[in-house]
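Rotation project, supervised by the postdoc (A.L.). Task for the rotation student: set up a whole-complex structure prediction and record inputs and outputs verbatim in this book. Inputs entered:
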Amino acid sequence: MTNFTHMHAAHCESGVVSSLITHQGFQISEAMAFGIGGGMTFAYLPMVKLDGMPLIAYRMPPKHIIKTITKRLGLTLNIKKYKDAKSAKEDLIAMLEDGKLVGLQTSVYWLPYFPTDMRFHFNAHNLLAYGIKDDKFLISDPVFDTPKEVGIDELDKARFAKGVFAPKGACYTIEGVSEDIDLKEIIKKAIKKTSGMMLYNFMPWIGINGMKSMRKAILKLENNSDKRYRSLYLGHIIRMQEEIGTGGGGFRLMYAAFLSEAAKIFDSNQLQVASKMMTDAGDAWRMFAFATSKVCRDKEHSLDDVISKLDEAIEKEYLTYKFLRSIKL
Amino acid sequence: MKKSDLPQDNICTFEGAKKALYVTRDDGSYEIEQSSGWEIEELATMQAVEEFKRLEHEAYERYEKQERSSLEVWMYRRRMTLKTLSECTGFWRICIKRDFNYNRFLKLKPSRLAVYADVFDITQSELLKPTKLEK
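Outputs recorded:
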């Protein structure tokens, strides 16, 4: 493919989606894709375990963004899954030779170019294949700064990893950008949906309620005599936020960028203010990670600072959604 | 986060790769900027990596003493827990636990060994005789 430029993004799914849609001729930034795709959330799910630790997510589950955005923008999403690696590979080669840009679902652990220390069993990492050269796939992985080349046989293991979210060779393309997209209406709907979920979801694990549940779980650690567990637990929270959550409350910062873009489209000062508030919330999450890391290092350190930083982050995010809902667009 | 606040700690876990983050310009608008990592992230990632190494180490000691099978060593070497291994193989956890038995594992059916070997991406002989772990 000749006219493809690799884009460095903060998050794999929003990055892939933004590239796919832009390639179809409808210019859309990663932050906008994340916002419209309704990627923002908070979920603390103690009943779902990752390596024995509760699942803490700062964004919606895999495929949510891509499904939501294609629905909201009225695009066609073609997802294909396969039974065996051979037909998946042949099909991918055929699609690439057709000049298509193809999104792939892969396992982080088996991607040959991933740094060794960052390989864990996460099966829903998205990347783009944009061509073939000398028996190598040309790969654009949005979370890396440069494009990669991977041997034709080296993707099999990553595309057919087993377990939770098993990709089953899933690949997808997006087609059919319509002429008249009412972006304003879509943005309005997306903001309403996201803020509503964060504030009013009845389940205690989602949104602001989820943050409060996590706060309770941290408070319980105070009485836990197993200091190694405490340290691992807090380290896990940081990892979910920093490594998997794009860093420094990264999703909050990305959502703030979305709000700022929306402010320009609506020419709304209030949205700009909301964007600033969301940045502050993201920074507060960053301070929370910083405070938490101190406790991780020093096992005798008190948890007071962690809790107060978390309270601050929760408060700031809460006020942002409240404010967002009060804006008349 | 302002551009000037963006951490550039050159962390080892990235192996030179860069991460994209959204930072604010002075006028409040956003741009994407590359970071060589934040030491807080490095700490958290390394903690998880070290934990698996520690578990692998302990498992290897048990394997050398013939208390447990090499399956446990490979499980931790591939950064899996019993839960992950069960999900990847499709075997029940209780059955995998039985395969942790040293003698039982040596007598395992080749077809079952093949499933494990495939999940770990190794040969069957490697599965039965893991190399000593590097420090």
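Student's summary: Residues 48 and 104 of chain B are 31 Å apart (CA to CA).
Supervisor addendum: Chain B touches chain A through 43 residues (CB under 8 Å).
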